[in-house]
Amino acid sequence: MKRKLVLSAVLFAGMVVANPMFAQIKRLKTVRNDMTRNIEKDLAKSKYDIDLVIQDPETSNMAAAWGWRGVIYTEIAYLSDTSELKKTLDPTGNASLIAAEAMTKFYSYSEEQQEEFDAKDNVKYNLPYAILKVYYDGEDALRNGKDFKIVKQYMDYVVALMPYDVDKVANNNSVTTEKAYYYNWYAAYQDTLIDTEIIYLEKLAAVPNYLKSDIFIRLSQIYSDKGEFDKAISYLNKGKEKIPQDANRFLEQEINIELGRNNQVAMLTKFNEAIAGDPTNATYYFSRGVTFHQLKTKELEAQEKQYKSNVALSPSVYYFSQAMKDYQKALEIDPGNYDALNNLAVLMFDSANYVYKQMTRVAGQYEKLRALAIDLYKQADVKFEALRQSGYLKDQDLINLLIDMKTCAAKTGNDARKKEIEAMIQAEKKKLAEKKD
């Protein structure tokens, strides 16, 4: 008799422990039954029941519990924001996140577990809507200036759930993993999280059919800013290989990189390539002219040092005429390119100064070189005057222009012109002083 009493007590104790779980199982069945009704669906009651099921440690590890929670919260997420029911059931506006989290957990279980309580088919049906809603809410978060961490919450669930949308419903509604990566990148970009940017840019760059040149260009900009120029160029080369139709965009970024590291020789190659691809682009000719101009200036500086050190001068590699042709071509294509007009005038002035200096250095050529220098000064003055009359230059830039014009007048022996320009200089200096006051 005593043995039977002890055994009964143990059985009774087991029933007491098991009953709460049975209660939650019963709730789960009720949720399934209520949610599969076509009419008289009580969403508030289903939410209440599924929350209790999830909170209970005995049932919180069941696939069906998470599956039905995902289904219920997806329906809550789609309620009108102005409805009283939505305000009651989703006061924080996080229903789409809760739904996506639940479905992500649901798919972590085996298919056998997913089948319980008819969860699998119902989750499969509701999954695309959960993806769409969490995606659109993430879009809104980005649009409303939310920080990267918030946007990432939404978009990471899109990425996690897309593989389970076997019928491609979300994809057919223009939601893709690549777009989720893009939004995460853009949120990181807005928050100036450079290292995080790289993560998502590289994910996008690795997608075979993702053909946006901006991704490779941005990676190139990042590494160029870090001073890792070779890595920056390598991303542009990958972009050109993958998206050859955007070759000009990649080329422009390559030029910017060479500008950043002051590599004029490499820039010449890039400008030659750019002009070959677009021979009517005035900017390319102008920029190549600037490059030739800079290279010639450096060459003259090196030769001047050699001359003063009594060292044999290195032969010239670059010539003023190279830059002059490009500036003139830029003006031919775009007569309103005042930067090209300015540089052409400066080039003539620089070449006149060079020839003037050579008058006493080249034996037996004094008169010939003097005549050439005077002619160049006169040509420079004509260009300077055209630029002055255009009104393009203001304040100190205009004063600097007038100073060069005064030098031209002095070198050509035109005292009247020199006096006229001096008056202009004083007038502009007075205007500038009044502005500052």
What sort of overall outline do the alpha carbons produce when their principal axes are compared?
elongated
Number of helices: 21
Measure the end-to-end span: 113 Å
Low-confidence stretches: 1-18
> How many extended strands?
0
What is the helical fraction, as a range of percent? Answer: over 70%
Q: Biggest sheet, open or closed, and with what strands and sense? A: none
Oligomeric state of the chains in view: single chain
Provide mean pLDDT, rounded. 91
Order of helices and strands: HHHHHHHHHHHHHHHHHHHHH
* Radius of gyration, taken over Cα atoms and rounded to an integer in Å: 38 Å
Percent strand:
under 5%
Structural class, please? mainly alpha
How does the SSE layout of this entry go?
Blueprint: H1 2-35, H2 43-55, H3 63-77, H4 84-89, H5 95-106, H6 111-114, H7 119-143, H8 148-161, H9 169-172, H10 177-190, H11 194-205, H12 213-225, H13 229-242, H14 247-260, H15 264-277, H16 282-308, H17 320-333, H18 338-358, H19 366-390, H20 395-411, H21 415-436
Helix pairs in contact: 1-2, 1-3, 2-3, 3-5, 3-7, 5-7, 5-8, 7-8, 7-10, 8-10, 10-11, 11-12, 12-13, 12-14, 13-14, 14-15, 15-16, 16-17, 17-18, 18-19, 19-20, 20-21
